[in-house]
Amino acid sequence: MTEQYAPTAADVGRMYDQSTGLLSEVMGGNIHLGYWRDGDDDASVEQATDTLTDMVAERLALSPGARVLDIGCGSGKPAVRIAGTWDVHVTGITISAQQAQTAGARPEVGEGNGQVSFLQADGMDLPFPDAHFDRVYAIESFLHMSDRATAVAEAARVLRPGGVLVAANPYQQGELTPHEAEIVADNRKLFEIPPIGDADEYAGHMAKAGLEIVEMLDIGENVRRSHTVAAALIRQAQGAGGSAFSEELSRAADIIERFGELPQIGYGLIVARRP
């Protein structure tokens, strides 16, 4: 796989159609990484992934009644948590038909405050009018988009003046050796990711879209444990299928673990405001 490898939206959708059930089981109902305060933090993976959701929500500066967009809603759990805790309505989109169906079956679906709605849609071509949402967030979804500039521009387009965008994403910081580049390439292929990019790339896209950067926080060391935990739990799931399936899971666990060990892989919370 070359550095120019760029999965299509359909590629990403198929990957999540197949993997969301396992990833959700492994990551405590969410499918994003978790946040641990330090090495002594004994939070469960569910608590840690919920904490990351809360960190995103806190930076949105939500008020009751706000209309919020979740780009890449995954299992729907973050949207439900944010809607219920902050008494807002969250619309979640996902490129995965399976995710849209699963999230759409949640009992919290509705149009009122504290409720959620879900639909299948492409983050690079949002099906909403301009200035439609008070707040927008994207947890580990811009990562998968082959045209991130367009994805960020679309998020800015549907955001009302004064609104806030929060993006949470892994990114690369520093050069990789050939062996390390191989590890990153394996992870990219596993999760259908184009070149990972760095924090400045995301900030540049936001500035070009007319957004003002409010905060850039690297929490790479706080989320790093997620990869080790996920790999261990995936290995435990190996016995759930035949030998070919077990081999596939074992290889996936190895890739995830090696990727998480790379010090050049950071993780950023980027907060931007539309003037």
List the helices and strands and how they pair.
Elements: H1 9-26, H2 45-60, E1 67-71, H3 77-86, E2 89-94, H4 97-104, E3 116-120, E4 133-139, H5 148-157, E5 159-172, H6 178-191, H7 199-208, E6 212-218, H8 220-223, H9 225-236, H10 243-261, E7 265-273
Parallel strand pairs: 1-2, 1-4, 2-3, 4-5
Antiparallel strand pairs: 5-7, 6-7
Protein name: 27-O-demethylrifamycin SV methyltransferase
Domain Methyltransferase type: 69-166
InterPro entries: Erg6_SMT_methyltransf, Methyltransf_11, SAM-dependent_MTases_sf
- The CATH architecture would be 3-Layer(aba) Sandwich
Overall pLDDT: 94
Helix-strand topology string: HHEHEHEEHEHHEHHHE
Which oligomerization state do the chains in this entry correspond to?
A: single chain
Pfam family, one: Methyltransf_11
GO molecular function, one term: methyltransferase activity
Protein name: 27-O-demethylrifamycin SV methyltransferase
Organism: Streptomyces venetus
Briefly summarize what is shown:
The chain is of the alpha/beta class and 275 residues long.
What does this structure look like?
This protein has ten helices and seven strands. α5 packs across α7 (199-208). It has helices at residues 9-26, 45-60, 77-86, 97-104, 148-157, 178-191, 199-208, 220-223, 225-236, 243-261; strands spanning 67-71, 89-94, 116-120, 133-139, 159-172, 212-218, 265-273. The protein has a single domain (9-273), classed as Vaccinia Virus protein VP39 (Rossmann fold, 3-Layer(aba) Sandwich), CATH 3.40.50.150. α5 links the parallel β4 (133-139) and β5 (159-172). It is globular. Strands 3-2-1-4-5-7-6 form a seven-stranded mixed sheet. The model has no long low-confidence stretch (mean pLDDT 94). Helices cover 44% and strands 19% of the residues. It is of the alpha/beta class and 275 residues long. The protein starts with 8 loop residues before the first helix and ends with a strand. It comes from Streptomyces venetus. Pfam families: Methyltransf_11. This is 27-O-demethylrifamycin SV methyltransferase. InterPro entries: Erg6_SMT_methyltransf, Methyltransf_11, SAM-dependent_MTases_sf. Keywords: Methyltransferase, Transferase.
